[in-house]
């Protein structure tokens, strides 16, 4: 009885889905095997490849934004369950109940999905007979190469060859002009220069150790996601490649910052124009010649992000002072400073209204946390003559300081300047240092 009732409820919920493209998106989920961990971003990219996410009225809405709306609707109606969350509490994965999967299979039978998924076996040369193919998912397929004729799939929007044995791509990969999503196997020996032709590419995935030559990424101005950028003298990939990639969303990781010459060069990355970036990771190599650390201050100062940034990680920075632009990071929620051994002071953070997590680890040169840590909590009341005190660190819930062995003094907030300090603090962790608190 309960089983049949659940089926009827699911079907009723399906019939209520609007617009019609949302029904198509749900039906498409039958492509996954039962109990499969569905990655939200991957699912949205697959929907996008089928052409179901084009905005109807709001022309400024991104297809990915519309896909997120659809996902939230299906989640709210219990078509998805067992969600996994990432940073910021955002859903990253989900599953479908078996009964819901059965419904998706049932309603998908009459729909032309224009997709080919492989779970280890491939279709062989017959694959290229499907000229209207939009999705080619060869994840974990036992193949060593892509055919040269792959370039004939002119309608292809999504290509996934992760965890295959492919080591080189044919040059014809550059003929997939409509491709939106490309997932490259980590063991690929050479990053194809022909990818520069894929001007409609929105999402690209490759491994941490992929050597990306310079002069390619700068042409992919429609990119919404980039796994990372590693500045390298060996490959000629410079930080200026980011200059025109102002459509990047979500997370941006920049490695190899020790290879940036100076502040003038780093300014070409134009991070301040990238208003959709929410998480920024800035990383330097730890072991390097001492003369390379001298311009770290200028490089970090030039990496000023847009004020929309919410999460910031600075790793192995060897300058002595942190950037002035932190004063203006009013939307920042989390900051992590890892291995910044030469820094002699902590940044001014107490005035930031949304900051809820601060982690400082392995800052060996830090000897003192002074009153400047708390910032200025006084603001004009409106008439320009008087000021009103606000709480310091008003939203901070987590403060973690570890490995500051030379920290010997921590000043309290100046008397009379703050009515409340750390009003929301829930977790205070202090590891491996000795300190005296001074009022």
Automatic annotation (TrEMBL):
GO terms for biological process: defense response. Keywords: Plant defense, Repeat. Residues 239-363 form the R13L1/DRL21-like LRR repeat region domain. Residues 31-104 form the Disease resistance protein winged helix domain. It comes from the Eukaryota. Coiled coil: none annotated. InterPro entries: LRR_dom_sf (IPR032675), LRR_R13L1-DRL21 (IPR056789), WH-like_DNA-bd_sf (IPR036388), WHD_DRP (IPR058922). It holds the Pfam family LRR_R13L1-DRL21. This is Putative leucine-rich repeat domain, L domain-containing protein.
């Amino acid at each position: 009885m309960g089983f049949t009732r659940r089926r009827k409820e699911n079907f009723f919920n399906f019939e209520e889905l609007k617009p019609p493209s949302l029904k198509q998106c749900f039906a498409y989920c039958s492509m996954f095997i039962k109990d499969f961990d569905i990655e939200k971003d991957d699912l949205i990219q697959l929907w996008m490849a089928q052409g179901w996410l084009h905005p109807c009225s709001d022309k400024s809405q991104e297809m990915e934004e519309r896909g997120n709306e659809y996902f939230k609707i299906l989640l709210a109606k219990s078509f998805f369950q067992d969600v996994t969350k990432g940073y910021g509490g955002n859903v990253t994965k989900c599953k479908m109940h078996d009964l819901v999967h059965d419904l998706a299979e049932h309603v998908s039978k009459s729909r032309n999905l224009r997709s080919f998924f492989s779970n280890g076996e491939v279709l062989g040369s017959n694959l290229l007979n499907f000229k209207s193919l939009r999705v080619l998912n060869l994840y974990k397929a036992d193949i060593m190469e892509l055919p040269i004729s792959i370039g004939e799939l002119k309608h292809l929007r999504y290509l996934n060859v992760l965890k295959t044995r492919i080591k080189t791509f044919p040059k014809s990969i550059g003929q997939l002009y409509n491709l939106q999503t490309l997932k490259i196997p980590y063991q690929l020996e050479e990053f194809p220069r022909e990818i520069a032709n894929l001007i409609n590419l929105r999402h690209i995935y490759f491994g941490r150790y992929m050597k990306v030559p310079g002069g390619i990424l700068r042409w992919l101005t429609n990119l919404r996601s980039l796994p990372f950028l590693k500045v390298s003298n060996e490959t000629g990939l410079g930080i200026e490649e980011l200059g025109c990639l102002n459509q990047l969303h979500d997370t941006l990781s920049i490695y190899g910052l020790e290879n940036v010459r100076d502040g003038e060069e780093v300014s070409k990355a134009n991070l301040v124009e990238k208003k959709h970036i929410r998480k920024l990771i800035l990383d330097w190599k730890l072991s390097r010649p001492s003369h390379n650390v001298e311009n770290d201050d200028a490089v970090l100062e030039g990496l000023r992000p847009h004020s929309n940034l919410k999460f910031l990680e600075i790793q192995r920075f060897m300058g002595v002072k942190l950037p002035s632009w932190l004063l203006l990071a009013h939307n920042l929620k989390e900051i992590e400073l890892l291995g910044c051994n030469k820094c002699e002071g902590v940044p001014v953070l107490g005035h930031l209204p949304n900051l809820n997590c601060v982690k400082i680890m392995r800052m060996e040169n830090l000897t003192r946390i002074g009153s400047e840590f708390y910032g200025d909590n006084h603001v004009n009341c409106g008439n320009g003559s008087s000021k009103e005190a606000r709480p310091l660190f008003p939203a901070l819930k987590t403060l973690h300081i570890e490995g500051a062995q030379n920290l010997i003094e921590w000043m309290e907030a100046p008397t009379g300047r703050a009515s409340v300090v750390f009003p929301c603090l829930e977790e205070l962790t202090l590891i491996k240092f000795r300190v005296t608190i001074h009022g």
